[in-house]
Each structure stands twice: as C-alpha cells, then as structure tokens.
Amino acid sequence: PEKPTIYKGLVGVYADVSSVSKVMPETNSLTYGGYAVQDLAETCSFEEVAYLLWHGELPNAAQLEAFKAETSSQREISPALQRVIREFPHDAHPMDAIRTAVSFMGLEDPEAGDVSDAAQRRKAMRLFAKIPTAIAAAYRAAKGQEVAAPDPKHSFAENVFHLIQGRVPQPEVLKAFDVSMILYAEHTFNASTYTARLVTSSGADLHGAITAGIASLKGPLHGGANEAVMHMLKEIGDPKIAREWLQSRFDHKALVMGFGHRVYKSGDSRVPTMRKYAEKMAEVVQDRTWMEISRILADEMLTKKNIHPNLDFPAGPAYYLMGFEIPLFTPLFVASRITGWAAHVFEQGADNRLIRPLSWYTGPEQRPVPPMAAR
Ligand code: CMC
Fold first, then answer.
1. 310: Cβ below 6 Å to ligand 1?
2. For ligand 1, is residue 260 a contact (CB within 6 Å)?
C-alpha cells in the first residue's frame, strides 16, 4: 500500500471530542466550561475553577464550601509515604519525587483499582488535596527540614506557601499564585493530558494516569519550560546583555525557552494576565531585573522571529519572585494540572475507546533469522 499521510507530533489531528476546555487559536483564547480563563483568573479562586473543571459548572456558595471542606480534610499524607519520601535521594528532582509519591499513593489508596466514575472522582479529590503536601515533604526532607503539617483552615494557595515556605505571604502574593494555578489548570489535549487519557483508555486507574501525566509534564518542551525559563533569565542575569545573549541563541539555532506554542501561533491569552501578576511580584520584591530581561527577550523574539511567549515565560519569574526555588516550578504546575488531567480521565472513562494509532513501518523487509554463527 501507498504511504499514508503521517501526522508527526499529531499536528492538526482531532483525536476525540471534549467539553472540558476550548482553545481558539484564531483569537488566541482559552475557555474552561465556556468561561475565558483570564476572567476566571481575575474573579475566581483556584478552588472554584477546580470545581468547574470537575463538574462543568461553577459552584454556588454552599457547593464551594463543601468542596473546600472535603479537600482540606484530605491533605495529610500517610506516615508510610512520609517515610518513603525521607528515603528519596536528596538530589532527586522534585518532579521525579512527586511522580513517585503519586505512584505510591496509588499503592495505598483504598479504591486504587476501582475505575468507576464515582471512585475515580473520590481518588482525584484525594490526590488534589495531597499533592502539595507530598511536594513540600519531598522538598523539605531533601533539605533536612521537618515536614510541616497541612492546616485545614488554609485556602489552597495559603496551604502551598505554608507547607513549602513555612509562611503565608501577603494577599497580593497569594492572589498571583492563585492566578497561576487557574491559568495552569487545563489546556485541552496537550502532551501530559493526552498521556493521562491514553493510560485511561486501556482501563487503567487514575493514579496510573496521573503518574504518567507527571512524567510527561516534566519535559522542557512542556511543563519543564517554566523552570528552563528561569534558568535562562538567571544565565542572562543582566538586562544589558539580553539582546546579545539572544543573538547567540539565534546563531546556534537554539530554542528560546518559554516561546512558541503548538496551537497558538500569534499569542497565548494566558500570558498578559500572568505577566501582570509577575509584574506585581517584581514590585512586592522590589526587583525588576527578571521582568526587564523578559521584556527585552519578548520584544526581540517578536520582531526578529515573530514568535510569541507562552504561559511558562511569565510564570517562571513569577514563581521565582514569590520565593520558590526553581526545581519546584514544574511540581507547582502539577499541583494545578491534576485538576485538568482528572477532568479528562473522567471524560475518557465515560465514553472510552482504546487509543491505538497505527505506525508506518520503515524497518527491514521480512527476512529469515540467521543462525548465531552467521551474525
Ligand atoms: N525558540 C526558537 N525557535 C522556535 C521556538 C522557540 N522557543 N519555538 C518555535 N520555534 C521555531 C521552530 O524552530 C520552527 O522554525 P522552523 O520553521 O524554521 O523550523 C518554527 O518556530 C515553528 O515551530 P514548530 O517547531 O513547528 O513548533 P511545534 O509546534 O513543533 O513546537 C513547542 C511547539 C512549544 C514545542 C516549541 O515552540 C518549543 O520547543 N518551545 C520552547 C519550549 C517551551 O516553551 N515549551 C512550553 C510550551 S507551552 C506550555 C506548556 O506546555 O507548558
């Protein structure tokens, strides 16, 4: 047969229907359940958005209270997981630590192998609640620090700062963090979400799907870009050399992290909102270096290459200015994206068909197996 069209990277392929979110490249916009992400970011808490992604509608006051009560009561991780985390190599990347911790939570979960919709939802709730605790435990254990206990009275954002940094910052910082969580929560069939759906399509359980999603998110072409952006900004270090540094990247035909997108070719609607909050963080910390270098890079990339920044570009410096160490940036993305991944796992499970594409073979034609002496 004739070679079929190969959609390498599945570029432009519609692999399924979905009602979780919608990407509109023509207008560079993204909606969750029909609401523009930038509107959700300005007006809602991350907990409201998590509820929206899992139920298709925003919660009313009573529903939100119940959702918050449920998640905040599930934040503790088991003594067994705490012990295992203390045994992790102290130089392990926090993404590998959270991937392993989520996989371990699958061993412990009383409903681990139950893939009914109700059980998958209960497990997602537990993971959503426990992931920040596990991230913080691994981070602190690697530094030889005590693991802090989650406080059920804290909001999602307060809890993350309390667990990782041991303090709850001022409201502007909490708001900027919450905005990042909302913007990171969901983004249609990106690599990690599609991975989670692929795992689900075989009938495997939620912990397997999320573990695989985390593995996929780590890569620098995907979620790992937020860390790569900050490493890049630090390597440049001084706005005065930003142009020259960028030119050397162009000369080497190297990627510039935090730029470009598979779907958005003329801008990412999440960027202006995240940039605004990153700017606020620069004001809070009284350090404009990173935003100034960012501005120069964004201007030059647009004029010289016509490539726009993606969400990771402002999120990286925003997290840095909030006081998080760089290797925590992609784990923070996990703490948010668990909501989108789980929504897709529910959707895939509700109308499943095994995902199993074809490959066009390019290896040797069929041939006899030679005896050992003839090889
Ligand atoms: N730096 C330099 N050139 C770039 C970049 C970049 N960041 N992104 C795209 N290009 C060039 C690319 O080399 C190609 O040029 P040419 O046509 O001459 O070969 C052209 O722009 C079109 O790009 P593409 O390779 O067709 O894009 P893609 O859809 O295959 O890849 C991408 C998308 C996000 C993997 C890529 O833009 C990239 O590697 N960006 C840097 C990493 C990054 O920031 N990733 C975060 C992605 S978005 C959010 C997330 O998942 O967290």
1. yes
2. yes
Q: Is 222 in the pocket of ligand 1 (CB under 6 A)?
A: yes
- Determine whether the shortest distance from the Cβ of 221 to ligand 1 is under 6 A: yes
Q: Output the CA 5–ligand 1 centroid distance in Å.
A: 22
Residue 147 sits at φ, ψ, to 5 deg, of -85, 120
Tokens representing residue 227 in the block: 């860390």
Catalytic residue positions, numbered? 261, 312
C-alpha 73/C-alpha 68 separation (Å) is 8
| CA 222 to ligand 1: nearest atom | 51
Judge whether 79 lies within some domain.
no
Question: Is 316 part of a structural domain of the chain?
Answer: yes
DSSP 8-class letter at 259: B
192-243 tens-digit pLDDT: 999 999 999 999 999 999 999 999 999 999 999 999 999 999 999 999 999 9
Mutation probe of ligand 1 site: the residue of 255, 304, 311 with most atoms within 8 A of C-beta:
255
The CA distance from 287 to 11, in Å, is: 40
| Atom 50 in ligand 1: residue holding the nearest Cα | 222
Q: How many other β-carbons are positioned within 10 Å of the β-carbon of residue 60?
A: 9
Establish if 206 belongs to a structural domain.
Answer: no
Q: What's the CATH code of the domain at 281? A: 1.10.230.10
How far, in Å, CA of 55 to CA of 46, rounded?
Answer: 14
Range of the domain at 259: 225-321
Pocket of ligand 1 contains residue 115 by CB under 6 Å:
no
Instruction: Report helix angle 206-217 to 94-108, nearest 10.
Output: 180
In a domain, 229, yes or no: yes
Residues 36-53: pLDDT tens digits?
999 999 999 999 999 999
What's the gap between Cα 176 and its chain centre? 16
- How many domains is the chain partitioned into structurally? 1
